[in-house]
Structure formats: C-alpha cells, structure tokens
Structure prediction request, 139 residues.
Amino acid sequence: MKILYVFIVLILNFQNSCTQEKVANINLSYTAQTRGFNYEIAVKNDTLYYTNSVENIRDAAQVLSEEKSRKLNSLLKSINTSSLETLERPSTGSISDRAPIAKLSLMKQGKEYITPEFDHGNPPEEIENLIDYLQQLVE
Prediction:
C-alpha cells in the first residue's frame, strides 16, 4: 500500500512540474501607442502585466490560472514565429493617426520575434486570435 501511495505522489508531482515548465516559457508583449495613449499587455512566465494610460491603469498584474496559461500556450503554438517579422498589415490607419500603432513581440527559445507595426484593433490575421485573447484577459 505504501508503494502505491508513493507511486501516486510521484506521478502527481511529475504532472505538476511539466505544467509549470510549459507556463514558465511564456514571454510576450503587445503594445499600442500614439500621442497621449499607451497600452501594453505583457506576459512573463505565468504573470500578466497591463498598462492603459486612458483608463489610468499602471502596471496592473495578475497571475494566470493554469487553464488560461494552457490556452495562451496553445495560441502561441499555432503561430509560425519565423513569419512574424514579415506579416502584412491589413490596414494603414496608424500612418495618419487614425489608429494607435501596435506590435507584438515574443521570446521563444532565446530568440526575440517582433511583428511589423500594425493598427491597434486590426491585427494581421495570423496573430488575431492571440491578440484578442490577450485583450480578453485584461477586461
């Protein structure tokens, strides 16, 4: 009976450490800005940081639940990081100040990937689901 108990405890600890390893690998930042407006959502490991100058929110932080971290990881895995730097912007409103300038950067395996600038509220299709989910997390 003791052996069975030890075996179960080892399995649960192994599962827990695998989950924590996946969560610890998230490192990304979504920023949007224009004159008088600064908006940032950053995720480092399992913590989400949020700044919004319009709503006067500075450096709000929340620890992501395991479920939210898993969904974020799933969305990140669906993105082809090697093509991030060549994404096409779907609109050009930020060129004439009709929309804040936005970009996404993420760190994966020691390399940083940064998208070209695009309009806040109209991201490239390839990263739209990720951006939408990040914004849902701070609502």
User: Anything to note?
Assistant: The first helix runs from residue 2 to 24. The chain is about 35% helix and 30% strand. Helices lie at 2-24, 66-77, 128-138. Residues 4-10, 16-24 have pLDDT under 50 and may be disordered.
